[in-house]
Design brief:
Layout: E1 3-7, E2 10-13, E3 18-25, E4 30-39, E5 46-52, E6 57-59, E7 67-72, E8 77-82, E9 91-100, E10 104-108, E11 112-117
Parallel strand pairs: 2-11
Antiparallel strand pairs: 1-3, 3-8, 4-5, 4-9, 5-6, 7-8, 9-10, 9-11
Length: 118
């Protein structure tokens, strides 16, 4: 059974920083893409950032220059460094991974709340 466990959310003032972590565990044989999504109240879940095994990264326009995604392939862990946080970054942040056990599949974490006060 695969689990994605997130940590690092919390309450921060505008302009502050947070670092999210997500560790994947289970009978994992390979991971392709790991990323972060977020969902604010009343809004659809959206991609924040993702990274592929080869090192390429993708960012939402709204976080470019402020957020950095990184990955420890050996530990099946992905990080999201969030700087210059804004109230509009407030959301539940979900870790996502496209990985293989016996078959390739997409897995989600349980989510971690990030709240940015003005």
């Amino acid at each position: 059974q695969v689990q994605l466990v997130e940590s690092g959310g919390g309450l921060v003032q505008a302009g502050g920083s947070l670092r999210l972590s997500c560790a994947a565990s289970g009978s994992i044989t390979s991971i392709n893409i790991m990323g972060w999504y977020r969902q604010a109240p009343g809004k659809q879940r959206e991609l924040v950032a993702s990274t592929e095994t080869g090192g390429s990264t993708t960012y939402a326009d709204s976080v470019k220059g402020r957020f950095t995604i990184s990955r420890d392939n050996g530990e099946h862990t992905v990080f999201l460094q969030m700087n210059s946080l804004r109230p509009e970054d407030t959301a539940v942040y979900y870790c996502n991974a496209h990985l293989r056990t016996t078959y390739w599949n997409i897995y989600w974490g349980q989510g971690t709340q990030v709240t940015v006060s003005s």
